[in-house]
Design brief:
alpha+beta; 31% strand; 5 strands; 169 residues; Thiol Ester Dehydrase, Chain A; 3 helices; binds coenzyme A; 27% helix
């Protein structure tokens, strides 16, 4: 399978925050943002693998900044690393200033998707070759994040998470 670059999976979703999508403080409801991120990440995983993909895990979500009603929100998703059948997707959330048009980073998240066949069985995906310094940094840390996610899910013994353990020694 020919390896791919993260840029080939880049997915950008831009949309408004409408009144039905806000909490009592008139900020974007967290679940709505999770759904937008899941959609963008799913398209990125599909672009990388060209297969059916399913969300295996939401590894990290940081709601650092509230996003007010009426904001223009951009969700940017890219595959940061692929393993055998799984792909880590890094998601950056940007909010656009109405007057200047400048974009400020509001949140970020990391999802894991798995490529599957028609019966739902995991299938292999292309490897990935990172290019930019940010892509390389995210690629290098992805194995530790995968191990952490598997340990938390009870699918890996902590003693087998070699690269993750090395962080603390
Ligand atoms: C995700 C799913 C396909 C994994 O199937 P499985 O039988 O556990 O298969 P495996 O154990 O071979 O795991 C497949 C890959 O997923 C990875 N994976 C599984 N759970 C994971 C987790 N919690 N975090 C990170 N990676 C995970 C495995 O490490 C493996 O990766 P690799 O092939 O790249 O090494 C299966 O659990 C599933 O279909 N879940 C439901 C998905 C779904 O419906 N999502 C929508 C949410 S409602």
């Amino acid at each position: 399978m020919t390896p791919k670059h993260p840029s080939e999976s880049l997915t950008i979703l831009t949309d408004l925050v409408l009144p039905s999508e806000t909490n009592p403080l008139n900020n974007l409801f967290g679940g709505e943002l999770l759904a937008r991120m899941d959609r963008a990440a799913s398209i990125a995983a599909r672009r990388h693998s060209r297969r059916i993909v399913v969300t295996a895990s939401v590894n990290h979500v940081a709601f650092n900044r509230a996003i007010p009603l009426g904001s223009v929100v951009t969700v940017e998703a890219k595959v940061s690393r692929s393993f055998k059948s799984s792909m880590e997707i890094f998601i950056d959330i940007w909010v656009e200033d109405r007057e200047s048009g400048n974009k400020t980073k509001a949140n970020e998240a990391i999802y894991t998707f798995v490529a599957v066949d028609d019966t739902g069985r995991p299938v292999e995906v292309p490897q990935i070759i990172p290019e930019t310094p940010l892509e390389i940094a995210r690629f290098e840390a992805a194995l530790r994040r995968k191990q952490l996610s598997l340990v938390i899910a009870g699918k890996m013994k902590p003693e087998d998470a070699t690269e993750l353990k090395a962080l603390f020694i």
